[in-house]
Every structure is written in structure tokens, then in C-alpha cells.
Amino acid sequence: MDSACRALVVERIQRRGPITVAEFMDLALYAPEVGYYARAARRSGRAGDFFTSVDTGPVFGALLAAYFAALWRRSGADRCDLVEAGAGNGRLTRDILDAASRRDPDFYHAIAAHLVERSAAARANHRMTLAAHEDRLAYSGEEMPGRIDGIVFANELLDAFPVHLVEMGDAGLFEVYVGLEAGRLVDGTGPLSDPALEDYLRRAGVSLERGARAEINLAAVDWVAGAAARLHSGFLVLIDYGYEAAELYSAARSQGTLATYHRHLVDAPAGGAPTAGPAWLADPGSRDLTSHVDFTSVRLAAERAGLATLSIAAQTRFLLDILEGSPLVAELSAPARLADRLALKTLLMPGGLGSTHTAMVFAKR
Prior knowledge:
Elements: H1 2-16, E1 19-20, H2 21-30, H3 59-75, E2 80-85, H4 91-103, H5 105-110, E3 111-116, H6 120-123, H7 126-129, E4 137-141, E5 148-155, E6 164-169, E7 172-181, E8 184-190, H8 196-204, E9 213-216, H9 218-230, E10 231-243, H10 245-248, E11 259-262, E12 265-266, E13 288-290, E14 293-294, H11 295-304, E15 308-314, H12 315-323, H13 328-332, H14 338-348, H15 353-356, E16 357-364
Parallel strand pairs: 2-3, 2-5, 3-4, 5-10, 10-14
Antiparallel strand pairs: 1-7, 6-7, 6-9, 7-8, 10-16, 11-12, 11-13, 15-16
Helix pairs in contact: 3-4, 9-11
């Protein structure tokens, strides 16, 4: 499978010339049948290549269920479209529905769940994963619903979008492309493929130093604009890892953040066909490719699309605010809930998921 994905990349380059890093990532991650995400329903967890908040257990979903119920009541609506974008096999929505069914029946019965997932392999698991909540599942598909009244949420979606990679040269901004040299995948620079790349940096107030490389996630800002257009009323909740633009594009990250994850190792040595460039070129189709999210540009895109920013906070602060005054605190103190208490510690502790991840909440009225 992995060699098949590399062959697809090579064929594309031979046919059209060097391709952008965004096109390379799109093939490596999402090409039907051979892309990393396209050929497996699940990639995270101890047996996978990386670890997410969902992998800690159902407590993360229980916390989100409590938060979403509060948002729903704040809206005053009778029903709630609950749309998970980048839903994978549906585990997080299942955990949310499990918790809501036990603790908040009014909210539970108001939910119409929509699972949006690009991978056909993952989508094939949706009905089985949500079998206990069959009457709550309204939709499973690749595209967002055309009109949404409720809550759109995504956990670690934006970091998986294909990014353009740029480099500041002596004569200005150039784009990094993936090409072939003696049968090896290599990186090199060329003219910008899209004038929106310079506009993106200008809007974010970023000036790169000479020799610096940086990722530009045009797909993320386009996705936020699209989600806002479909959100007729309600909220957009995004949880991901990244930085504000001033920090993300600082000298401390002058070579960008694009990386691969394989068996929980960052930029692990290549095990397949050779490359003559950075680690992210290795073994397309066999490993995750990711970059940190530019929270400044996400917020600006949301506000340009008519959303109001309600909060941007580290995951620790976000979850602690949910826990404050919640009956979950008493429930988790029971001796039988040790596993859940340990999971909560993982979600909150400094240096872990709690401080590396940020929750962004937007509203549309």
C-alpha cells in the first residue's frame, strides 16, 4: 500500500512536474485506497501512530457533552444539530451521546447527530459505533450539511489539512515543491502557486526572516469560512494544537512545524524508498503528516465569515471551566472511577494535552 502511494506521487510529478507540498500531503494522507487516512478507520491510540484526547477514554466526551448541553440551552432552540467534522470512526460523538443519554435526557433527545468524515474506511464504522444511538444519527457522509442549527465541532481536524510550505529568499517569498531527482523525492523552491499565500501572511501580520520556512494552511481558513456559511445559528467549537501567528512564525520555529508521526515517534527514520530531503517526504501513505495550527488566522477567518469569538483558551482552562460546579466531580471521586480520574489528569496536566491543545469557541446568531 505504501509503495502504491509513493508510486502515485511519483506518477503525478512525472506527468505534471514538481507539486506543491499541499498536493503531496493530500495524496499521502487522503488518496483513495492508498492514503494514510483513507485506508484505516482509526490511526490513534496506543496501537496507532499518535495519541489524542479521545484516546484517554470516555471522560473527554462526557465533558464536551456537558459543555454542548449548556450551549444548547443558551441558544433556546428546541433541537440541536450536533455536527462532528473529521469524525473518524465516530468514537467521540458516541462518547458524547453516551454521557448525554445518562445525565441529560432533554439534551440527548434534542440531538440530531451528523458525522462528517472524508475517509470511506472510517465512515463505514459510523453506524456500528453509534449502534446504541441509532435514532440520534441523522447523517454520515463526506460533506457538511447545507444548513446547521446547533453545534459544529472538530477535535484535531485543522492540523491534518494539507499545507503549503513557503520560504523567504533574497528576492522575496517562494514556495517549496516536491520533485524527483535520480528517483528520489526531493524538495526545492519555485514561484508561489497562489497569490493568497502572501495575503495570508499579510493578514496575520507576519514577516518571515530570510531563510525561514513556514506552513500556510489555506485549507483551514477555507474550511472555517465554509462551516460558518452552513451554520445558520449556533456555535463552532474547534480543539487543536498550535500557536498564535506571532509565535508560530517566530524565529524559534524558523523551519516550520511540518512533521511526521509513526508509532508515536516524530520524524521517525524512513523505512521505504529513499528520499533526499526532509523527514516529511519519507514513506508517503505510511505515516501521519501534520503541522501546528495558526490560531490567529483561524480566528480572523471566523470573524470575517460573521462569527463572534466567544473564547480561546488552553484545553486545561477550557475543561476546568466545564468541571466547575459540575456533578462530574463527585462522580469521578468514586473508587471505581480511577481510570477516568487518570484520564482526566492526562487531559489537564501541564506539558501534556492540556497545555498543548487550545479550544476556540465561536458563535453565530
